[in-house]
């Protein structure tokens, strides 16, 4: 495939059904009202020269290159800022316009380096293109006058350079940072000839608020803001459309290559999840895929204390198959199991769960979603009938009130956060429920109307209080409830109880009752109110209860079943949704159908030729417990570092140490592989062929840009292990696996690689009833028929602060790093976050004699680690926070065995701890005294 | 109060039971049993059933009542 270049219409599309007919260069074109002359011309196939305009940004009208003549109007207006009007007649090419444009270009070029042949963007520069388009042949002013050619280059960012000498001050980068990303880190500094782009207060990009999303680089029409990889490797020559392998937003990218080498990842404008935007991880942090740490050959060892021995694939697969059978022969069919990965494709995950169910002969398959969003699966299925979010991302553009609970989108889902911020700048109201003052609470041009700063572990008390206000203040949407829901009366009696009032729970949550009442009125009174939530909801001992509590609130206020509303989990990893869809849970076959359902099991038994177990299997924490008690003896782990990511590390390592066989399939020798007997090298997303399903149920293609560096696709390895165990499992390609998923799983019945290649992406359910997919669910009725209200009793966690452990630790993610850091720690992203830090309120630090930068011990009743302190009043008093990106910190050494009552999802968000000074930071050097 | 030394199946059963304390005991036991039947591996259910009959198991009375409603565990 050659290099993909999307058409740039110059200005954004305008929504609306009313159309306007105009004539441009004799062609009649019909466009929506409000469309610019530039865009109308582009849609008619007429390109008007431009520099400061691009269709991801509002028109600015500064470059004066897009001038046109309009019948009946004086002068030559800028086509980008001039909307069409009915009957308008426009001419884009006249001798006068040509002369004006040449004059403009002449001025630009008179202050621009004439190094096109050696410039990294030679051939991909809009300034160069426009000089050609307008026919510029000479610069009459010469090049000796005052100019900017000696301005320095800022190379502080690890991924791109800012070469000020090439800047034409078009402001596209500034506007991209404002309008697309919403960070407002860049500005135009100075006036007239002295105008220049400045990052932050005028320092370097790294010193500024820049989040390195790449929007400015994307928008720059010259080589001013340029990926360093292009400078070093040259311009790419071909593109492959694929999907990002980081968070659950699932951004579409063009992988741009020279040969088999990825030069850069460019966000794809037609990608429905991101619409041309990106973040620092997806845009730049792909270098891990070719990092020398990658293990590319299989390895085997008898004992975990032995050195690894590299072997051929055949030996590794035979070894795994034989040992699995031997262990089953000695300890029973249920003594082995597997864990699927939310970082792998749907097809790879489907293959693993099929291997477990059909070749292993049990249901001991679970997925890393166990430790993040399993309560979402439980809670939304109980209330709405299916285990998925209700909306597409675009829906937030219609929301009037956005309630963000236990999520930090600017760090964990940055591209979707930009959508949220854009809607907030348009006037939507924001409620944030979070112990920390996350960036969304207050950032440029955004301020939450209410920050409900609750204590960790009290979500259910808060959501019940909000529901209490809805019910007792007459804010229920009675018509919606009567038509669409069931069990409302019983729930209404439950939630009306005085023990749920904001005043009654104020002491529990720490949130002033008046604030809860005001926030609830705002949510319930909005035309469209939507809930976005993350792991701050699910990773609690009441995670499932909280999900049902939010579902209740949305139903009671009628905020379900149309654009701008809904209950939306922000999935942590790229394929959390997909791995759950694919039957990774031990009680469910693909499509969330219980293993005890004879008819469903029959579908798979007929196709797979094996009798399947009707009893649920072990969940991940149960596997660890069963390993320690001796009934579980072998584990296949696909792409998850359970030692670093699962809670209570000591318990996890004790379990793994007790196993007879641990098989790890991963890119790198991670912490878990220290306890493994077999290492099977995995493939990066650049080598995978398959699909990911993002948080909005969107199934996107993952296309390989190169052959597997290991020689095998991961699903091939899994099939060969199954074959080594005597079960015939074979596919010729990944498309065949999706075809099998479609045959067996009604919500995927209309999905195929061919369809995705044709339409780009679809959101499940995709079947005969919805051949183009389902952006918004529960429009005419809930999946389960009627939405079900569930009583949500607040049961406090048993993890309490005590005199010995008086602080509450909560853990999470930071923008530049991703989960256990296996990928991002092997990229330039370490420039932003080289270590895990403990965020702490100044008061808690002071009473412990701790200063910023000191190293402290962090101790819970199950373990201890040490890390440096960052004092920050974004933390509430009594709560500390850290990330879990670095194995050297091992934050999960201190997290406990407490888990969600329904799903066993660990309670990462509440651990009682104490912090003590270990090593003071070196005192800053005293300033030298002048002699 | 459960601790790190409480067997996992007892800790889990008690945590589930805590969610149903406000319900009619008979209905609560039914719902708890249904939940355990749907989500627990048979070997965990077998342990629960065995411990439910033992004095001093530390099991919540609702969990004990639920265990009595569970069929004998098979498979797994």
Automatic annotation (TrEMBL), chain A:
Pfam families: Fer2_4, Fer4_7, Molybdop_Fe4S4, Molybdopterin, Molydop_binding, NADH-G_4Fe-4S_3
Gene Ontology terms: cellular component: membrane
Ranges for domain 2Fe-2S ferredoxin-type: 18-96
Ranges of residues in domain 4Fe-4S His(Cys)3-ligated-type: 96-135
Gene Ontology annotations of biological process type: formate metabolic process; respiratory electron transport chain
Chain segments annotated as coiled-coil in the UniProt record: none
Family under the similarity heading: In the C-terminal section; belongs to the prokaryotic molybdopterin-containing oxidoreductase family.
Protein name: Formate dehydrogenase subunit alpha
Organism name: Planotetraspora phitsanulokensis
From TrEMBL, chain B:
Highest taxon listed in the record's lineage: Bacteria
The protein, known as: Formate dehydrogenase subunit delta
